[in-house]
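Hi all, long-time lurker, first post. I run a small reading group and we've been trying to get comfortable going from sequence to structure in the token notation. Rather than ask abstract questions, I figured I'd post a concrete chain and ask someone more experienced to write out its structure so we can walk through it together at our next meeting. Sequence below, copied exactly:
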Amino acid sequence: MAAAKKAPWKKPNPKPANSRSPHLTPAQKLSAKRAAKKAGRPYPNLIDNMRAASTSTSKDNSRKK
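-- Answer (accepted) --
Happy to help. Here is the structure in token form:
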């Protein structure tokens, strides 16, 4: 049986500080802010930022294949 997934904020950081992903682009920040506003929050949370970062990279990766 598969183990239950941990919440993102409870997982240790998988990468060292010098190899982390770059900051969100202005377009990604805007996307995260829109998602937060749609959900009724005044500013984006970790999940909004993760979604904004993954949607743009997944589109880029799908073109490369």
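A couple of things your group might point at:
The radius of gyration is 14 Å.
The helical segments are 26-38, 46-64.
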